[in-house]
Amino acid sequence: MRMHKKYKAIFFDWDGTAVKSRRDSVDEVLPLIRSLLELKVVLVVVSGTTYENIAGGKLHQMLGPELTQNFFMGLGRGAHNYSFDASGNPKLWNAALPDKQELIKIHEFCFELHKYLLIHHDIHTDIVFSRPNYCKIDLLVEHDRGEHMYLKSGELDLIDTFLADHNFKGGIGELMDKTQDLCKEFKMALKPTTDAKFLEIGPTTKADNVSFFLEHLIKPMGIGINECVFWGDEFGYIGPRIKGSDAEMIIPQMQEADFFDVNQETLEMPLQVESVGGGVPSFLEFLKSQINLHN
Questions:
Q1: How does DSSP classify residue 126?
Q2: 2-96+205-294 sits in which CATH class?
Q3: What pTM did the predictor assign?
C-alpha cells in the first residue's frame, strides 16, 4: 500500500487529523512528531487555524530548538508560513495578507452575502471577521460543533435539508455557485471553501501554503514530489463538484505525491486521494509506521 512507503516529507492537517480537537491533549501525537523529527523527516502542518490554536501556541516549546529545524507550519488558509529560528521560536517566513482596505472589502462582501441569504432565503448567519485574510460564515448558527471543527456524522444531511427548506434546492452546491456569482458581480478574486457548516471566503487557501513550501522548502532540499505525502480529514466531496478544504492541498505541481483522508464519513474522494477512514488513530498509526521505516 502507498501508505507504507517511506516518505521524506509529511504534510498534515491538525484538527481532525493529528488531534480530535484543538483543545485536546497532544500527548499521543507529540512523541511521534518528536521521533520523526529526530529521524530528519520534514513535517509540515497545513491548517486553517492560527498558531495559538495549536497546542496553545506552545508546540515549539514542547519540541525544543534542535527538533524544530525540520518542522514547519502553513496556517490561516494561506496567510502565514512559519519556520523556527535557532532558539526554536516560531519565525514568520512568509505572509500573504491583504492590506487593510482589501480586508475591509472582503468583510463588506461577506456582509453582502449575509444580507442576501437573510433577505432572499431567510437564512440567519454569523460572521467571524477576526481572521487575518478571510471571513468565516456560520451557516448553521443553532448547530453547535463545539471544539470539534471537523465534519461530523450527519452534518452533510443536516445542511442539505436546511438549505432545501430555505429554497436552495441544489443544496450546498447551489449555495457555492451563488457565492461564486456574487464574487464575480463584486469583481473580487475570492476563493470560497466549505466544510458544510461554515463558508470560508478569502483570497487564498491551503493551496497557497503548499505552493510556498514546495518552492522554498521541498525543491531546495532536493525532496522528490513522490517522496511527499499529505494527510487530512476534509478531502472528500461535500456536494457535486464541491471538494473539502483539504483538497486545496492537491496543487498541480504535487500530483505525484500521495494523499490520504481519515474522515469516517463515506464520501467520494478526488482521484488522487485514498480514503483510509479511522479518524485520528489512522494518522497516528501511519506516523508509527514511518518511524519504523526510517529506523
A1: E
A2: alpha beta
A3: 0.92
